[in-house]
Design goal:
By secondary structure, the chain is of the alpha/beta class. The protein is built from 12 helices and 12 strands. Helix 1 crosses helix 2, helix 1 crosses helix 3 and helix 6 runs parallel beside helix 7.
Length: about 350
Amino acid sequence: MSNTPPIGRKVTLNDIASGCGVSRATVSLVLRDSPLVNKLTRIRVEQELRRQGYVYNRAAANLRRRTSSSVALVLNELTNPFFAEFAAGVDEALGSAGFVTLLGCTSESAAREQAVLGSLLEHGPGGIILSPAEHSNAHDVLATIGPRTPLLLFNRELGGSLPEFAHWDQLMLDNQRGAFLATEHLIVRGHQRIAFFGGHHDSSSCRQRHAGYIQAMQAAGLPVEPLWRVECAPTRLDAAHRTSALFTTSPAAPTAAVCYNDAVALGLILGLQQRGLRPGQDFALTGFDDIAEAELCMPPLTTLSTAPRERGQQAAKLILQRLQQPQADSRKTIAPVQLVVRESSCPPIVA
């Protein structure tokens, strides 16, 4: 007689134990990778698990043991190559520590952010790394995940004040300093009419980068025209579509632009080419992130290196530290950025 349970009934530990002639406790030890089980018994149990198609409910087991082997990573825009590299770094570091990454994307929707967080919490992650969507706020996030779930905020701040009792950590980029360096670089190259292109003011990282741009312009005594601030979604496609907005003030149009990120800069390159302008010759621009494509595009892009894969590894290590020290004081870490000069930041054309 077969020991396989009838079709439609969930396979249990008792079924596995009966099928290979061991105790239920031994099967449980094998599932938990316990060293107490000898090699031959482990092999026999694992073969029976495969034969009967047993599915281990790790979330339920974690709940019983009050532990978890996963961390949730929730990103605001997965199509941005920066976040793809960041996610790879997170997964590498978590994998090395024996953790699995649960990935979710909000596509810049605060409402979807709540839904994604709620869904991922059903899988019992030990903690969450969150790059907030635009318009998301601390009150809503707290209401969804509760005060006990460890949370690391990356790249952006949440609207509203962070709850002190929740022990939420932050890993931010030095956005203002980076944009200051990019703007200063263009000024040193001889540009005086410099635009800030891309992003939305609802994003804290965009506000910080715009503040760095303003700081550099004011330090050089240069005027800032309101029309030189062009907002768009931080994507290549929207940036290309918004390129014409830079030239509505001709003949006082800008000769250069500090772009919110590399995706925007790459879109601006396409938009300039569609207008018959040569990026890096007729118009200068800088990016922010230094994604892999920045060095390979035409012209190669001057940008701020943020080392996204390293930032992902850093984020993973910070959330793991929080899991080990749940009552430690909340910590805010500012990751440095470095200006990388390439061919896109040309001097202005002399009339």
